[in-house]
Amino acid sequence: MHAPAALVEDRGDSEVKDVVSQLRQDFSKYVKGVMEGKTPSVAARSTHYNEIQGSDIPLLDGRFNGRAGGQTVAPPIEIYHPVFGAFSERCKDPKLEVPNDVLCDTASLLRSVSKISVQEAPRDPETRGILAKILGVSFEHVVNTDETSCEFMCVQHTPQSINAAPALFQIKGELGNGGSDPSVQASFYYARFYCNIERTPIRERSCCPAFLISLAGPWLVIMGAVLTSRVITQRLSPYEWLGCSRVLDDDQVLQVARRLYALRLSIADLKEYYQNLPSPVVQPDHIHPRFCPCIKSFSLDGENVQFVYVQPLQRDPSSVTFKAIRSDTQSPIVIKFARRYGEDAHKWMADKRLAPKLLTCESLGEKYGNLLLVVMEFVEGQTLHDAYDSTEPLPENVRYGVRKALDVLAQGDFVFGDLRRPNVMLENENEDEELEDPLEKRIRFIDFDWAGREGSDLRYPFHLASVVRKASGALENDPITRAHQDKMFENL
Known about the structure:
This is Protein kinase domain-containing protein. This protein is of the alpha+beta class. It is 34% helix and 19% strand.
């Protein structure tokens, strides 16, 4: 028995246009909401911060409103601009030679911030001057048209005759001064700066990458920020103690100096980026490059294959899965970023026509946090989540098809740890064939992040979503077993 055609037909170009249009409208609404919201100094106070994180315009920084909930996590910031991965690499590079003047200035900085500040105002000019010298920048005070301003920033003129901010600084006398976390305040200043109407030409050309540096007394934190469909801010370092509290501790100077010198080089990279900011090519019915990762090619049979993003395949800012078009063949593909992936299980199922063909699963290297780039052929159809009413059981022939697919998976000693409706597709019927495939033969598994050989120390991740815990009976970091898979099948 076949499902009604309306449930499984591909909506094609019209759906793509709807997604692209909706994303554009949502972004405009978000920018307007930021500009009409509270000023950064007020927004960063815990009560208002909590309120904003439960609204439609949260910072995607991982902090959430305990009552309202809401999604405030985002993909790793490294995938949006290579400068953040380069910074992390430099921090870890034992061969990075830190100039002697940077080492000596860092020692001066540590002595300076060890002095207790008794004023609410930013630390004394001496401390700011030392930090600016170490980073090779000038601290400037820029006031937006709405009269808000970050305490200090490093600016760079762009070809569009508008200043960008490769780095924003929030400097407090002591941690807690002003009644807010300075790193949160810096995040709100970043949002206000780049959502300002003056920066429209930059937003139209870029995801607005920047470093956010907060110094409060002897505490330093370095963050990265981008503006995609939302403002994403992520800590690239923990709050680091700069106080001189131990004798015989030259290592502290060396470690802090390495991090600050890595930041100096990375800010210089961003200054060059903004100095030569190009105008991107936005293809019709494709999402703006601002919303997309910066990775635009993959390796296949020794060749470098370019691609263009079309749209995200998940309707929220945390999406790491995209539809794309290969530039060489113009064929549609799926681009996915993952921390781990069941490559062998995917290939096993693809060979049996029970999963899309896997084109590559390659590491992006340390610059991108060793994330995996997964590329597969695009399957025309719908997920079981989209095709059927979630309040009703699946049709028996669909359940039969899924059960048969699981039996094939078991023949290779594999288990599928996330057997939920969004991760199983019903491929469209092939119109070129005279005989229609039985519905159960159009089942395709599409998400192998938590798939692998049973007993191979394959585990569920930490922070496991409640919807998965409920369906599988698993807890975070539990080994993934066939019993979990079978329970998910019963709850499918």
